[in-house]
Amino acid sequence: MLKHRGFPGRLPGTDFQFVIRRANPKGVTPIVRRERYRDRRAPDKRADAGFMAALWAQFGPEPFERGNLDAGRLSWLFGREVIPAEDPFDPASYDALLMIDEKVARQTFPDAFGDAGFDLDEDEDDDDEEDWD
């Protein structure tokens, strides 16, 4: 399983996971298309946008290997913003090739591509321990 070095492990300040640490010993979790309903919680929508921003920053328009990217998080984007880059596509393979459908992704997550971009860095105030004195 390819580990994507430099890819954020999670959405900063949350428990929304972006990558897995090791392969599942019970077998690869397949990527499936999950339906996104309008009434999804704001944190869930933010996690989707943050994941898209991280994907774009890491891979851009080029095909990429699934590797250690979280299947659950990929499934929220799969079939819309993230599409198979090979035929036949094996949704239960760590070696499967994916790519971003840039046109769809830009419409759905414009902040992931904007000049200001989506902030994937930890809040700078988190390590100011002097404020507690």
Helical segment count: 3
**What's the rounded overall pLDDT mean?**
84
Number of strand segments:
3
Order of helices and strands: HEHEEH
- Radius of gyration over all CA atoms, rounded: 16 Å
Q: Major sheet: order of its strands?
A: 1-3-2
The main β sheet shows up as:
3 strands, antiparallel
The helix fraction, in percent, is: 10-25%
Molecular structure report:
This protein is of the alpha+beta class and 133 residues long. It has one domain (1-21, 34-114). The protein is built from three helices and three strands. It has helices at 42-59, 71-77, 102-108; strands spanning 64-65, 82-84, 97-100. Strands 1-3-2 form a three-stranded antiparallel sheet. Helix 1 crosses helix 2. The chain is globular, with a radius of gyration of 16 Å. The model is unreliable at 123-133 (pLDDT under 50).
